[in-house]
Amino acid sequence: MKRIQSVDFLRGFTIILMILVNTPGDWSYVYAPLLHAEWNGLTLADFVFPFFLFIVGISISFVYKEKNRDTTTYKKIIFRSIKLIILGLFLNAFVPYIPFLEIKSLRIPGVLQRIGIVFCIASILYLNCTKRQLLMISGLILVGYWLWLAYIPLPNGASPILQRGSNNWANYIDYKLLKGHIWKPDYDPEGILSTFPAIVTTLIGVFIGEILISTKKRKLFFLSAIGMVFIVIGYIWGFLFPINKALWSSSFVLVTSGYAILFLVLFYYLMDESKYNFGSVIKSVGANAIIIYFSSSILTKIFYLVHITQDTSIHRWLFECLFVYEFLDRSFSSFIYAIAVVVFYTLMAYVLYRKKIFFKV
Q: Cβ distance 267 to 10 under 8 Å?
């Protein structure tokens, strides 16, 4: 199958935005759009992860469309999922000093762990279900998740709320099952219950991928209509079930998927239909997406934890010495540091691409 340039571009663009969001010079000085919403709401940063899961879904529809439902296929899916989960756990546990792993305080959930889980489940569902069944499963998850979080009393008899704290079902389950191993004491943005609607984000990508490679006439118009309908329904649903990345609320699924579809349509029109040839450097990031994300995350962790002096980490030294000046606003300096990190990893990806080195997970 001929490669669809817009998908490669969107994948690379998403990883670049992910690095930009994750590596400011100073977390106390970050432009608001590059910070995740404190709870309810939607910022530029909140689009990154759902966009990536959406692209995972598209890739599933490309790769497994003609695959047989046999032991070999299932082994490959499960093995790839396990590798992603292990990488995620290693990233959370790694420290740049002996014994190099901190297991006692290991955060169990994480970005790579969620990618591994939803990839596995979405792939198996795609291989075994019809489109109608997948639509029904997606709808049931989104509606069921809303009803569960909003209306089912908790075991302690408390009425459910959609705020941070133990009276929120998603937080309650994470606290009970993963206590001491989650991102914050009262919630984890990649927690157990919120993984279910994240599967739907991936399944939406599967549906869109199917349409993208079809011979359907006016498919871009059809995709645009789907994207806009998702956005409208998502914002309306948001009045009852607020748009919330930490909970991965059903409204969040629809709104972010809708925007992902519209961005994909734009890039598809420009790159695959109109044949404008641009963004090769960005596409090179998408070609090694997981390893670029993993490398940036592990090196950032090293820069924060390794100290040049007792009070100065490598990260702080680089930022203060190379990017902070009296005539520059500190938020701008913090942003420029993140841009520099993005440029470094983009060039790294481009060199790997030119040398035809691809790391498959």
A: yes
From residue 260, alpha-carbon distances to 7, 17, 175, 236 in Å are 11, 14, 32, 18
Euclidean distance between CA atoms 188 and 292, whole angstroms: 24
Gyration radius (Cα) of the chain, Å: 21
Which 3 state secondary structure label does DSSP give 40?
strand
Taking the C-alpha atoms of residue 58 and residue 312, their distance in angstroms, rounded to an integer, is: 43
For residue 170, how far is the Cα from the chain centroid? 19
pTM: 0.95
Inter-residue contact 281 to 19 (CB < 8 Å): no
Widest CA span in the chain = 64
* Residue where the block lists tokens 């959370």: 92
* Whole-angstrom distance, CA of residue 337 vs CA of residue 329: 13
What pLDDT shows up at residue 70? 87
What are the φ/ψ torsions at residue 194 (nearest 5 degrees)?
-70, -10
**Cβ(334)–Cβ(21) under 8 Å?**
no
Q: How far apart are CA 234 and CA 135, in angstroms?
A: 17
CA distances from 322 to 156, 331, 347 (A): 53, 14, 20
**In this model, does residue 1 exceed pLDDT 70?**
no
Q: What is the mean pLDDT of residues 79-92?
A: 96
pLDDT at residue 35, rounded to an integer: 96
Distance CA 100, CA 98 (A): 5
